[in-house]
Amino acid sequence: MSLVSEGAEFNGTIAEPSLATVGDYLALLKPRVMSLVIFTALVGLAVAPGPIHPVTAFTALLCIAVGAGASGALNMWYDADIDALMTRTARRPLPMGRIQPGEALAFGLTLSAFAVVVLGLLVNVLSAALLAFTIFFYVVVYTMWLKRSTPQNIVIGGAAGAFPPMIGWAAVTGSMSFEPILLFLIIFFWTPPHFWALALYRTDDFKRAGIPMMPVVKGDATTRLQILLYTLLVVPLGIAPWPLGYAGALYGTVSVVTGLGMLVLAVQVFRERRPVERACRHLFAFSILYLFLLFAVLMIERGWGGLIARLTA
Q: What CATH number is associated with residue 288?
Protein backbone atom coordinates (compact mmCIF):
# COMPACT_ATOMS: atom_id res chain seq x y z
CA MET A 1 0.00 0.00 0.00
CA SER A 2 1.36 3.42 -0.91
CA LEU A 3 0.25 7.00 -0.49
CA VAL A 4 0.47 9.72 -3.11
CA SER A 5 2.85 12.50 -2.13
CA GLU A 6 1.05 15.68 -1.16
CA GLY A 7 3.87 17.77 -2.57
CA ALA A 8 3.78 16.26 -6.07
CA GLU A 9 3.18 18.80 -8.82
CA PHE A 10 0.71 18.16 -11.63
CA ASN A 11 2.44 18.59 -15.00
CA GLY A 12 0.04 16.75 -17.23
CA THR A 13 1.12 13.33 -16.07
CA ILE A 14 0.07 11.20 -13.12
CA ALA A 15 2.00 12.08 -9.96
CA GLU A 16 4.60 9.53 -8.98
CA PRO A 17 3.45 7.51 -5.97
CA SER A 18 5.22 7.95 -2.70
CA LEU A 19 7.34 5.05 -1.49
CA ALA A 20 5.77 5.35 1.96
CA THR A 21 3.83 2.44 3.42
CA VAL A 22 1.49 2.40 6.37
CA GLY A 23 4.38 0.96 8.35
CA ASP A 24 6.51 3.98 7.51
CA TYR A 25 3.87 6.35 8.84
CA LEU A 26 3.54 4.24 11.96
CA ALA A 27 7.32 4.46 12.40
CA LEU A 28 7.03 8.26 12.29
CA LEU A 29 4.93 8.04 15.46
CA LYS A 30 7.83 6.49 17.42
CA PRO A 31 5.63 3.65 18.74
CA ARG A 32 8.03 2.58 21.50
CA VAL A 33 8.11 6.10 22.92
CA MET A 34 4.35 6.37 22.43
CA SER A 35 3.76 3.18 24.43
CA LEU A 36 5.63 4.64 27.43
CA VAL A 37 3.66 7.88 27.13
CA ILE A 38 0.34 6.00 27.06
CA PHE A 39 1.36 3.89 30.04
CA THR A 40 2.45 6.79 32.27
CA ALA A 41 -0.62 8.80 31.25
CA LEU A 42 -2.81 5.83 32.17
CA VAL A 43 -1.22 5.74 35.61
CA GLY A 44 -1.91 9.44 36.08
CA LEU A 45 -5.50 8.86 35.02
CA ALA A 46 -5.85 5.78 37.27
CA VAL A 47 -4.60 7.40 40.48
CA ALA A 48 -6.56 10.64 40.00
CA PRO A 49 -9.57 11.02 42.30
CA GLY A 50 -13.08 11.43 40.99
CA PRO A 51 -15.35 9.73 38.43
CA ILE A 52 -14.63 9.42 34.73
CA HIS A 53 -16.77 7.91 31.98
CA PRO A 54 -15.15 5.02 30.06
CA VAL A 55 -15.55 6.87 26.75
CA THR A 56 -13.93 9.97 28.23
CA ALA A 57 -11.03 7.92 29.58
CA PHE A 58 -10.51 6.23 26.21
CA THR A 59 -10.72 9.56 24.40
CA ALA A 60 -8.14 11.10 26.73
CA LEU A 61 -5.68 8.24 26.25
CA LEU A 62 -6.24 8.23 22.48
CA CYS A 63 -5.56 11.96 22.23
CA ILE A 64 -2.47 11.70 24.42
CA ALA A 65 -1.20 8.84 22.22
CA VAL A 66 -1.90 10.76 19.01
CA GLY A 67 -0.23 13.86 20.45
CA ALA A 68 2.85 11.83 21.38
CA GLY A 69 2.94 10.34 17.88
CA ALA A 70 2.59 13.78 16.33
CA SER A 71 5.56 14.98 18.37
CA GLY A 72 7.58 12.04 17.11
CA ALA A 73 6.67 12.78 13.49
CA LEU A 74 7.61 16.45 13.83
CA ASN A 75 10.86 15.48 15.55
CA MET A 76 11.76 13.16 12.67
CA TRP A 77 10.83 15.84 10.14
CA TYR A 78 13.18 18.39 11.70
CA ASP A 79 15.96 15.94 12.52
CA ALA A 80 16.06 14.11 9.18
CA ASP A 81 19.51 15.54 8.39
CA ILE A 82 21.19 14.33 11.57
CA ASP A 83 19.19 11.07 11.65
CA ALA A 84 20.81 10.18 8.33
CA LEU A 85 24.27 10.43 9.95
CA MET A 86 23.57 8.17 12.94
CA THR A 87 23.59 4.38 12.85
CA ARG A 88 20.73 4.19 15.34
CA THR A 89 18.40 6.36 13.24
CA ALA A 90 19.66 6.07 9.65
CA ARG A 91 16.94 3.60 8.65
CA ARG A 92 14.06 5.84 9.70
CA PRO A 93 11.58 6.66 6.88
CA LEU A 94 12.88 10.17 6.12
CA PRO A 95 16.61 9.41 5.88
CA MET A 96 15.76 6.39 3.73
CA GLY A 97 13.71 8.63 1.42
CA ARG A 98 10.48 6.67 1.82
CA ILE A 99 8.63 9.72 3.21
CA GLN A 100 9.20 13.27 2.01
CA PRO A 101 9.77 16.07 4.56
CA GLY A 102 6.58 17.88 3.56
CA GLU A 103 4.55 14.72 4.10
CA ALA A 104 5.99 14.20 7.56
CA LEU A 105 5.42 17.85 8.50
CA ALA A 106 1.79 17.79 7.34
CA PHE A 107 1.20 14.47 9.07
CA GLY A 108 2.60 15.73 12.38
CA LEU A 109 0.78 19.06 12.32
CA THR A 110 -2.54 17.41 11.43
CA LEU A 111 -2.25 14.88 14.24
CA SER A 112 -1.22 17.59 16.70
CA ALA A 113 -4.24 19.74 15.90
CA PHE A 114 -6.58 16.74 16.04
CA ALA A 115 -5.29 15.56 19.43
CA VAL A 116 -5.42 18.95 21.13
CA VAL A 117 -8.79 20.03 19.73
CA VAL A 118 -10.54 16.72 20.45
CA LEU A 119 -9.09 16.56 23.96
CA GLY A 120 -10.24 20.11 24.65
CA LEU A 121 -13.75 19.58 23.27
CA LEU A 122 -14.47 16.12 24.66
CA VAL A 123 -12.45 16.01 27.89
CA ASN A 124 -11.40 19.39 29.33
CA VAL A 125 -9.39 22.49 28.52
CA LEU A 126 -6.63 21.96 31.09
CA SER A 127 -5.64 18.54 29.75
CA ALA A 128 -5.71 19.91 26.19
CA ALA A 129 -3.55 22.87 27.18
CA LEU A 130 -1.03 20.57 28.84
CA LEU A 131 -0.94 18.35 25.76
CA ALA A 132 -0.44 21.35 23.47
CA PHE A 133 2.38 22.62 25.67
CA THR A 134 3.99 19.16 25.72
CA ILE A 135 4.00 18.98 21.92
CA PHE A 136 5.39 22.52 21.69
CA PHE A 137 8.05 21.80 24.29
CA TYR A 138 9.24 18.62 22.62
CA VAL A 139 9.24 19.95 19.07
CA VAL A 140 10.28 23.59 19.48
CA VAL A 141 12.14 23.81 22.79
CA TYR A 142 13.90 20.43 22.71
CA THR A 143 14.15 19.39 19.04
CA MET A 144 14.66 22.77 17.38
CA TRP A 145 16.63 24.53 20.12
CA LEU A 146 18.15 22.50 22.95
CA LYS A 147 19.13 19.32 21.13
CA ARG A 148 21.67 21.02 18.87
CA SER A 149 22.84 23.75 21.22
CA THR A 150 23.62 22.44 24.72
CA PRO A 151 24.76 19.28 26.53
CA GLN A 152 21.86 19.94 28.91
CA ASN A 153 19.47 19.14 26.05
CA ILE A 154 18.18 15.90 27.52
CA VAL A 155 17.92 17.35 31.05
CA ILE A 156 15.65 20.25 30.14
CA GLY A 157 14.05 18.57 27.15
CA GLY A 158 13.21 15.53 29.27
CA ALA A 159 10.33 17.52 30.74
CA ALA A 160 8.33 16.75 27.60
CA GLY A 161 8.35 13.04 28.40
CA ALA A 162 7.39 13.70 32.02
CA PHE A 163 4.11 15.53 31.34
CA PRO A 164 1.82 12.56 30.43
CA PRO A 165 0.90 11.60 34.04
CA MET A 166 -0.11 15.21 34.63
CA ILE A 167 -2.24 15.19 31.48
CA GLY A 168 -3.92 11.95 32.59
CA TRP A 169 -4.62 13.42 36.03
CA ALA A 170 -6.00 16.64 34.52
CA ALA A 171 -8.26 14.63 32.19
CA VAL A 172 -10.03 13.23 35.27
CA THR A 173 -9.99 16.17 37.65
CA GLY A 174 -9.66 19.26 35.46
CA SER A 175 -7.13 20.49 38.02
CA MET A 176 -3.61 19.85 39.27
CA SER A 177 -2.17 18.50 42.53
CA PHE A 178 1.18 17.60 44.08
CA GLU A 179 0.82 13.87 43.35
CA PRO A 180 0.96 14.18 39.52
CA ILE A 181 3.76 16.72 39.92
CA LEU A 182 5.68 14.09 41.91
CA LEU A 183 5.16 11.60 39.08
CA PHE A 184 6.45 14.28 36.70
CA LEU A 185 9.57 14.74 38.83
CA ILE A 186 10.28 11.00 38.91
CA ILE A 187 10.30 10.80 35.11
CA PHE A 188 12.13 14.12 34.76
CA PHE A 189 15.08 13.07 36.94
CA TRP A 190 15.02 9.51 35.56
CA THR A 191 15.55 10.70 31.99
CA PRO A 192 19.20 11.93 32.18
CA PRO A 193 20.74 8.73 33.62
CA HIS A 194 18.58 6.65 31.28
CA PHE A 195 19.53 8.54 28.13
CA TRP A 196 23.14 9.33 29.03
CA ALA A 197 23.75 5.60 29.55
CA LEU A 198 22.73 5.19 25.91
CA ALA A 199 24.78 8.20 24.86
CA LEU A 200 27.94 6.79 26.44
CA TYR A 201 28.00 3.79 24.15
CA ARG A 202 26.66 5.75 21.17
CA THR A 203 29.08 8.66 21.49
CA ASP A 204 30.49 8.24 17.99
CA ASP A 205 26.97 8.46 16.55
CA PHE A 206 26.23 11.76 18.29
CA LYS A 207 29.70 13.13 17.48
CA ARG A 208 29.26 12.30 13.78
CA ALA A 209 25.90 14.09 13.75
CA GLY A 210 27.26 17.13 15.60
CA ILE A 211 24.87 16.76 18.54
CA PRO A 212 26.39 18.20 21.74
CA MET A 213 25.44 15.32 24.02
CA MET A 214 27.15 15.25 27.41
CA PRO A 215 29.78 12.60 26.48
CA VAL A 216 30.66 14.51 23.30
CA VAL A 217 31.10 17.90 24.97
CA LYS A 218 32.15 17.07 28.54
CA GLY A 219 33.65 13.61 28.09
CA ASP A 220 32.96 10.21 29.59
CA ALA A 221 34.14 10.94 33.13
CA THR A 222 31.82 13.93 33.58
CA THR A 223 28.93 12.01 32.06
CA ARG A 224 29.44 9.06 34.40
CA LEU A 225 29.46 11.43 37.38
CA GLN A 226 26.29 13.15 36.17
CA ILE A 227 24.59 9.76 35.77
CA LEU A 228 25.43 8.91 39.38
CA LEU A 229 24.26 12.29 40.70
CA TYR A 230 20.92 12.13 38.87
CA THR A 231 20.42 8.55 40.04
CA LEU A 232 20.96 9.74 43.61
CA LEU A 233 18.13 12.21 42.99
CA VAL A 234 15.68 9.91 41.23
CA VAL A 235 15.88 7.01 43.71
CA PRO A 236 14.50 9.00 46.69
CA LEU A 237 11.89 10.55 44.42
CA GLY A 238 10.88 7.07 43.29
CA ILE A 239 10.43 6.01 46.92
CA ALA A 240 8.63 9.25 47.94
CA PRO A 241 5.03 8.21 47.07
CA TRP A 242 5.25 5.58 49.85
CA PRO A 243 6.13 7.81 52.88
CA LEU A 244 3.88 10.57 51.51
CA GLY A 245 0.89 8.22 51.68
CA TYR A 246 0.26 7.97 47.94
CA ALA A 247 1.24 4.27 47.88
CA GLY A 248 1.43 1.29 50.20
CA ALA A 249 3.93 -1.28 51.38
CA LEU A 250 4.13 -3.15 48.07
CA TYR A 251 5.13 0.00 46.23
CA GLY A 252 7.54 0.89 49.00
CA THR A 253 9.27 -2.49 48.77
CA VAL A 254 9.50 -2.41 44.98
CA SER A 255 10.73 1.19 44.90
CA VAL A 256 13.45 0.52 47.48
CA VAL A 257 14.68 -2.71 45.87
CA THR A 258 14.66 -1.41 42.30
CA GLY A 259 16.08 1.92 43.45
CA LEU A 260 19.04 0.09 44.99
CA GLY A 261 19.43 -1.76 41.68
CA MET A 262 19.55 1.54 39.80
CA LEU A 263 22.09 2.90 42.25
CA VAL A 264 24.35 -0.16 42.02
CA LEU A 265 24.35 0.02 38.22
CA ALA A 266 25.00 3.77 38.26
CA VAL A 267 27.98 3.20 40.57
CA GLN A 268 29.28 0.54 38.16
CA VAL A 269 29.02 3.01 35.28
CA PHE A 270 30.76 5.68 37.39
CA ARG A 271 33.65 3.37 38.27
CA GLU A 272 33.95 1.83 34.81
CA ARG A 273 36.75 2.81 32.51
CA ARG A 274 37.05 2.03 28.83
CA PRO A 275 35.23 0.16 27.51
CA VAL A 276 32.04 1.39 29.23
CA GLU A 277 29.57 -0.25 26.88
CA ARG A 278 28.59 -3.25 29.00
CA ALA A 279 27.86 -1.32 32.20
CA CYS A 280 25.99 1.37 30.26
CA ARG A 281 23.87 -1.15 28.41
CA HIS A 282 22.91 -2.77 31.70
CA LEU A 283 21.93 0.57 33.23
CA PHE A 284 20.00 1.63 30.14
CA ALA A 285 18.00 -1.60 30.06
CA PHE A 286 17.39 -1.70 33.81
CA SER A 287 16.29 1.94 33.91
CA ILE A 288 13.37 1.07 31.60
CA LEU A 289 12.37 -1.80 33.87
CA TYR A 290 12.76 0.45 36.91
CA LEU A 291 10.36 3.10 35.68
CA PHE A 292 7.89 0.51 34.41
CA LEU A 293 7.79 -1.31 37.76
CA LEU A 294 7.33 1.90 39.76
CA PHE A 295 4.35 3.01 37.70
CA ALA A 296 2.88 -0.48 37.25
CA VAL A 297 2.89 -1.22 40.99
CA LEU A 298 1.50 2.23 41.76
CA MET A 299 -1.37 1.62 39.34
CA ILE A 300 -2.06 -1.91 40.57
CA GLU A 301 -1.85 -1.01 44.24
CA ARG A 302 -3.51 2.36 44.29
CA GLY A 303 -5.17 3.20 41.06
CA TRP A 304 -6.33 0.17 39.10
CA GLY A 305 -9.12 -1.03 41.37
CA GLY A 306 -10.34 2.50 41.93
CA LEU A 307 -10.25 3.24 38.21
CA ILE A 308 -12.34 0.16 37.39
CA ALA A 309 -14.84 1.12 40.07
CA ARG A 310 -15.12 4.65 38.71
CA LEU A 311 -15.46 3.47 35.13
CA THR A 312 -18.26 1.03 36.01
CA ALA A 313 -20.08 3.25 38.51
A: 1.20.120
